[in-house]
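Q: My labmate handed me this sequence with no annotations at all. I'd like to see what the chain might look like in three dimensions before we decide whether it's worth expressing. Could you predict it?
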Amino acid sequence: MKIVFIIIIFISFKSFSLEYGSETGLKIPRYVSIKSNDANVRIGPSINYPIVIKYVVENYPIIIDDEYDDWRKIKDSQGNTGWIHKSLIKGERNGIIINHNEKNPVKIYNSADGKIIGEIYTDIIVKLEKCKISWCLISFKKNKGWIQKNYLWGVDLNEEFNLNLFQKFTDLYWLSLNNLDNIFNKLK
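A: Here is what I predict for the chain of 188 residues:
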């Protein structure tokens, strides 16, 4: 009876565990970016397979679904899939601005739930600096700001990364500053 119990527990843990790539040992699926402005995606994991997509935009975010030797099976924000050589990708996190209401640009804030400091349009590729549960700090050219995560392709909705020990203090600082600014504006 104990053996059956142990087998059931083992199977349960196995079904809830993350998958890892057979070649790299890294989490599957995972987000990466295109390294250059000339990257071919093929039907299969070899240069002998025909090209199905050619990426001409550096830093374009993709998701790796599988690994085979030096090849990675990928998917992009449009649902295109294929195999790309590992030398054409990098681990840097980038995202694409998505907005289902394309008439309005996405708002950029000085902090999560802070003040609006700008806007950005759909299909722009941005660097993901760090992400909290619902917000990501993005950079585009020399500008930085926070946007709601549901306006990004290139990060999972429940994913957090690059948060440091002092993030809570930084958030509290910006919340206090924004609240003081609101109080002073009401007094005018």
